[in-house]
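Moderator note: this is an archived Q&A kept for reference. The question asked for a predicted structure of one protein chain; the sequence and the answer are reproduced below.
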Amino acid sequence: MTVRIYRPRDPGYALPGSPRHNAMITASKAAAICGVSRWHSEYATWLEMKGLIDPEPPKDIFATGQAMELALAELWKLRHPLWRLSRTEVQYQSDELAYPAAVTPDRVASRGRARKLVEMKITRDWEEWGDVSTEGDCPVDYAVQCIFQMGVSGVHQPTDLLVMGPWFSEKIYTVEFDETIWRWIDGCCRKFWASLDADEAPELDDSTSTYRAVRALHPDITPGMEVEIPEAMAWEYGRLQVAARQTEQALRGIKAKILADMGNAQFATCNGEIIAARQPHAKAKGGVALVSKAVLDESAA
């Protein structure tokens, strides 16, 4: 398979976020297309590639991650002194698959004639990253991305995925190329690409990504216009609304019990782990609110 190789300043380089890049299947899109991405759904990816909605803008942490690549590249070289590392990312493009593909690994390592791809990521929380094990199990979505990169680029040496976590903890995952998995990924991408030509959108799912995409799909509101929905759908919507209210009421009750037990304490812990905290209430003057650990982590980030 003939593959074109570009660096960021080369004329043929497809800049991420550009119309040309958005029209290609990339590693992160492949994970979404295969249904393993925790961040993006196949349905949202389909709408974006059809040009029906705008791609989601990059999050602030992505810019931080790009800045950290310089330090992580030096760290990788210290861990692998016999290998050379490219100074910048390298983009591989292929038109010989059933779809246009572009993969942009963070670095390419070389040792004589040997080549291997190197990916570098950062995370605020190992649980959020998807690996809290001591064995170092690479999250499935990132493994699929790495195998897609190896499949498109033709560089089948195991990929190194270096991740820097909280308090400078680090993990290096070795992702092996697997021909069977690559064929499965390629098959998913072929089917997806054909669905774009046929205007056959993937099925809706209950992911946050799909919900956001549907909300962005029809931003205008026609006053007075009505649409009849199936009776089963209306019944399910009503049932879930009642269940949500009951859950909200139960949650309010347990929060009241926790606050009562906490007294003037700032944190509520269980087995030494912080699960919630008391903070000044944003609206109730002189009152406090109970905030979960997940919210605390988001605020800290």
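Archived answer notes: The mean pLDDT is 90.
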